Please model this.
Amino acid sequence: MQPPPFQRPAIVSAIDIESIPVGQITRQRVVMTENATGNETLVPAILLRAEDPRPVVGITAAVHGNELNGVHVIHRLLEQLKPVHLHRGTIVAVPIVNIPGYLRQQREFEDGTDINRIMPGRANGNESELYAHRFIDRVARHFDYLIDLHTASFGRVNSLYVRADMTKPVTATIARLLSPQIIVHSAAGDGTLRAAVEDLGAHAVTVEVGDPQRFQRGLVRSARLGIVEVLEHLGMVDDLSDPDTHDVIECKRSYWLYTDRGGVLTVLPNVTDTVHEGDVIARLQNVWGDVVREYRAPEDGIVVGKSVNPAARAGSRIIHLGVVAAR
Model:
């Protein structure tokens, strides 16, 4: 059977929740900025609205241009969700936020800035600040809830984990409904998309879905099922599927460990492995193959993420260690 003919989505200056057609999937391209030829940079948005438009759930991916699992999560989610399934509210899914970074297959914006460090940007700022400001003003300001999908960056791998402020009941509930492998308590940092929408009154979490520049079917499936659970909890959809059932490890804090010299790095534990204080977690060799340093876990914890890049400069990442909360 042939797919239906593709209709080019409308170009809009901003998302308008009230004008979104009810009971159908709508695709739009939202104007962000213009390049030096005057051509517009357009962010794709996939919209699904019920008669009652609230709450608005934003699902964003590729704020960092090389973090692609979230793109696939959104595609698979919207393959599962049909307009008839949505009883209330609006879903605003943005599969690629950072279009210039995505086109360059890089984490940063085209001017080298990490736009997840400068949100909400500035209306009269430089190139990246203007882009960030317009994304907030033209898209994200509508959100009542945000699920922001990320992955590790080049040279690193991640578990499926959620960063959320677990002191806030609403975000704590969302984090647990997402049913990741690990939850890390973390207040939203200044400059992140999560912090910017929280400042506007939304409830927001960040979901780290594995590794960069690839699609990982198992993690994509788990993230999709978790998002469906959140939508069910909000009364937006009926019970569509069962979540993954597994133990979720909650961490009260986490931090990265770094090398203190350069060389060839081998990190020993895998993501989600438990380590104990004093365990050897990495070895550093010189270019001749001699072991010049062993790194040990400073305390008990779980490996949230790790470096997989053997070429280590002084100050390179080793592991992201999560300190498990007492039960």
User: Anything to note?
Assistant: The two ends are 53 Å apart (CA to CA). The mean pLDDT is 94. Residues 271 and 303 are 5 Å apart (CA to CA).
